[in-house]
Each structure stands twice: as structure tokens, then as C-alpha cells.
Design brief:
Largest sheet: none
Structural class: mainly alpha
CATH architecture: Up-down Bundle
Strand content: under 5%
CATH class: Mainly Alpha
CATH superfamily: Phosphatidic acid phosphatase type 2/haloperoxidase
Number of strands: 0
Number of helices: 12
Distance between the termini: 56 Å
CATH topology: Vanadium-containing Chloroperoxidase, domain 1
Order of helices and strands: HHHHHHHHHHHH
Number of domains: 1
Amino acid sequence: MPVFSRSRRLTAAALALAVAGCATAPVSAPTFWTGFRDHPHGYLAKDAAPNAAAFLPPPPQPGSLREQDDIAVYRATRALKDSPRWTQARADNEIETPAAPHAFDEALGLAFSPERTPTLTRLLGRMLGDLETIQTPAKRGFTRPRPFVTEPAETCIAPEPWLAASGSYPSGHAALGWAWALVLAEMAPDRADAVLARGLAYGESRVICGVHYPSDVEAGRIVGAAMVAALKADPAFQADFDVAARELDEARRAGR
């Protein structure tokens, strides 16, 4: 047998074994975080991020008509205890884990799957890191007491000590819910109306829950919009956005 013929056969056999090995090798699943302690950092450097304390107006003055309205809404929404909207507000408290964007399942017409959309999952998760950078100066500067602290009443979640100690203004959940909605609406423009409506409802859940006033939620949405504007100018975010948008499109096509 000619040497070159034998060599070609050995090469072909080696290639076949390599292909077979690739076909049978297990595909490693994406690794995600589990909660706040191992949560991914945001995209924006602190000195490049907007400062909510610098652009937000202060919360309503004590005794003002706006504060009176906030209190009236807080008292009225306590009557929603054990209603479906109360249950939804409790579910919307989830914000830290990779599964948190499940809140947008119905709006997107898709069951959100971190495993199928790993880049999208991490992008949305990193936005929480950016939110902390942007909103923390305002929360610490304004130090508005939360509704259940000023006037104890039923809330949809058992408030932990850290929650009672943190500022009520602005609402971080409302900020992130609106920011997520803006990003997802751009990725799925045909579902934009439903996605944006869900983003608004995500913030309203904080009022239903009794952990924020309506003016906290409105300020949170301003923070969320400012965050998205800053992220749109960040090259790393934009690169991930393009990949995440393709992941979402493929997942939606597969689900049809």
C-alpha cells in the first residue's frame, strides 16, 4: 500500500473520531449567579454613570398635597390584600436572580429561559448593577422613609430590616422594570406595547405592595430611562445588546 494512501486513511479515521467525540461530548450549561452576593457588576464605571441625586427633584415635601396623595394611595391599596393584584405584586418583588425577567413572559409571548438566552440574561442582570451605581446617591441623600415605616400596615412581603432602613425615593424596582421594558421593547418591537405596559405595572406593584409611594415609582422610571440612555452609549453594552437581541429573536421563532 502506498505510504500517502495509508496516511490519508489514518487522517480520515482521526477526523472521524474527532467528529464523533464532538458529537457525544456534553455541552456545558451557562453559569449564572444565584442572588445579590454573586450578582454581576454593571457596565458603567462610577465616574461615567448618571447620578440620580444630581438630576432628580426631591421627594414631596412633608404636608404637601403631593405627599398627602401618596399617603392616601398607600392607605387605599392596603385593601387589595389577598387579591390577584396583591399576589402579582408579591411575585414582582423578585429582581436579583437570573429568572427575574420571567415577569415579561406574557408580554413577550415567550417563556423566558436563561439557558436559551444567556447573553440576554446577563445583560439584564448587569443592568441591576448599573442601577445601584446610579440610584444609591439619591437613596442615601434623600433618605425618605418607606410607607410601612411611617405608617405601619400590611405589605405584600415581609419587610426585612435592610428594606426598612433603605430610602424609599426613588424606587429601584420601578427603575429596573422600566429600563428592562425599554430594552426588551427595542429587541421585540412587535410586542412593544405589551412590554412597556408590563414595565409600568412592575413599578406599580411596589405601591400595591406597600413598600413605595407613587412618587417614588415615578422617580424610579426617570432613573431607569436615564440608565438606558447611558447604556446605549456604552460599547460593551451595545455589543451584548446585539447578541442578546438575536438570542431573543431565535427563542421567539423557536417558540412559535
